[in-house]
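Page 37, top half.
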Amino acid sequence: MMKLKFLGVVLGCLALAGIETATPAVRAEELPEKYRATVEKGLQYLVKQQFKDGHWGANGDQYPVSMTALGGIAMLCEGSTVKEGKYAKHIRKAADWLMERSMKGNQRDGLIGNPDHPTETGRYMYGHGFGTLFLALVYGDEDDRERREKLKDILTRAVKYIGAAQSSQGGWFYTSKVEGHDQDEGSVTVTQVQALRACRNAGIPVPKQFIDNGMKYLKNSTTARGGVVYSLGRGGGGAPAGGERPSLTAAAIACYFYAGDYKNDLVKKWFKYCQTAIPITAVGGGVRLGHDEYTHFYYGQSVYMLGDDGWEKMFGAAPKEQRVTWADYKKHMLDHLVQTQNSDGSWPGGGGFSVGPVYSTSIYCILLQLERAAVPFFSR
């Protein structure tokens, strides 16, 4: 543990000094046996759904940029990389496909996506955020000099694009401020913040104010009850009461956790809200949350990083039934996923916004593999 902490300090100092570093690969841990067959079936389903050119699509070919990134991340979580492992060729093809969609020139320079695609036109910032996150995770394992330089350029311009797209409130919207859309929305904001963090971890320059303004936006979007609202709105001085979203609140926790901020009073407030809004007894118990996959994509990450003793470290001693723990989350959610997987390896779409089995399967495979610790970004 001390060696890992020392390595982190060294890498951080190198980054501050302007020396490019790549996040070292983490050897994948053994996955609990009860989840292995489920994960394998899920990943094999994704293999079969990948198009020959390397991309994935939802319900046919919808939201291809986001789906390709999420499918690729699910395979990275298995322990494979862009250059080795069981799913290396699938990860490579996904990375190639996304790299080819890095736009150049005019106000869209740096955008990873295709705004002319019918399902991307009005929400291309989602694809850009997830695409940037995936390519940042791949970058650390790329050892081909020419491809690495190309990836560095793509990610550098992607970061600049995120900065230009940021609203005057500090958040992000489905489309860019540069194109006249100076608006904000919580879920897109979280997607961009995670992408920026992954780029910074990979050694790509990220202006501090991009992330700081995004985090400030999440803080300003929090109500007195501790929940994050859908949108702060233009010119608003604070979050409107009654509009809290459990999914966005869980996502906000993940953003702060990835910043290494585990004891922030705001994080405590968000977790207390989620404890009520996403009760452990409802997790995996058939109770719909409105945006099931999205909610658990971030809540699962947050609870995993919390671990089994993090609650007491934040709030002090408490009876087991009054704590949120990874062990309880696994028992209710991950075990539920084992039981509800379809025979072909996929999962059905959840409540609210859901775009089919590729989306659900990618997210649930990521959740089931968090304990592998194969991707440094998702590790404790």
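Page 37, bottom half:
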Amino acid sequence: MQGLGGRTLMDNCPKPRHSCRMENTALPPDDLGKLVALRHALHAAPELSGQERETADRVALFLRDTQPDHILRGLGGHGLAVVYEGAAPGPSVMFRAELDALPIAARGGFAHASRRPGRAHLCGHDGHMAILAGLGLWLARNRPARGRVILLFQPAEETGEGARAVLADPQFAQLRPDWAFALHNMPGLPLGALAVGPGPASCASVGVRLVYQGREAHASLPETGLSPAPALAALMADLAPYSTSPEMGPEYRLATLCHMRLGAPAFGIAPGQAEAWITLRTLSDSALAEFEADVAALAQTRAAALGLAVSLSRHDHFNATLNDAQAAAHIAQAGAALGLPKAEFALPMRASEDFGAFSACTRTGLCFLGAGVAQPDLHTPEYDFPDALIAPGVALFAAIWGQVLAGDRAG
């Protein structure tokens, strides 16, 4: 099938069907070895958001031998969907992992360390891809008898753009999932411990950049210019009530002042320009829109009172992730069936995850798997996804598929 720009969007390759055996969600040692090798290869060759062509090609090549029915390429950029069809009607279930790495230099010293300066998989997306690829290996031995399983390898999660780009891509209409599931590893929790619940799973957030324009003057005559310094001072005071995280609740608002710049680095010039970068965070998309509007109105009012011009731009917008109650129940039941311990982890997660964009179009379930109590934090130079988490991650996804099928039969 041909699509925009003449790209090959779908490779069709129907295969023989046989029944899906849910009694065994484990992979043989050889498959686990392949997945560890895949993760290490992905970790050594990280690509940033929007640049994940090589990563997607590597994953597609790895999964070709699983004989999927369709491979959909170029979703929302470099996204990849690998589809396994059942012969009979049934639920369409999407499992998602992220392709992109971070613009941070790693410090690890291990053999599979990043070979690309200033870029590294420090959020565990390499491990998430290995888990999702492992589900593909499992499906090669346990093909769906009915319904459809979609493995989505999504681009540009770290910027908040990828999920919405996938949804906006006309090709996504070919997928139309009834359910969408994702996991994220979580350092600080015991290895393999599971955290999930209905309702908000991760916060909505947006970056707001304020740029103030006044007028420079000689440092000996500051009164002849128009300094934006009072506007920055007022902004810090205005944001102070939201600068520490309150209890999670409907009125939850958090504003983090991430960066400020005032004037030029010179002692002879009174400043005429300034900017501030703020991250705003709430529990819902509607609450975020209200918070953003309030901050914009306040900044504009303060600037006008001081005679300054101010412009606003928004960046790194993430939708809130809202777990469907039944989707969360499927995850919890799958974890219980596997004997995964329940994690002591307060939901929702204060950080953002662009998986939330899928909450607007299907029933979503996002869960968190412990990466180890002593594991370095996400987005730190020392972080490395634990290979021991691949097997329970694959088993969890396979068991979730079984729970969805069982629920569909019951319904």
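Margin note: The first strand starts at residue 10 and ends at 12.
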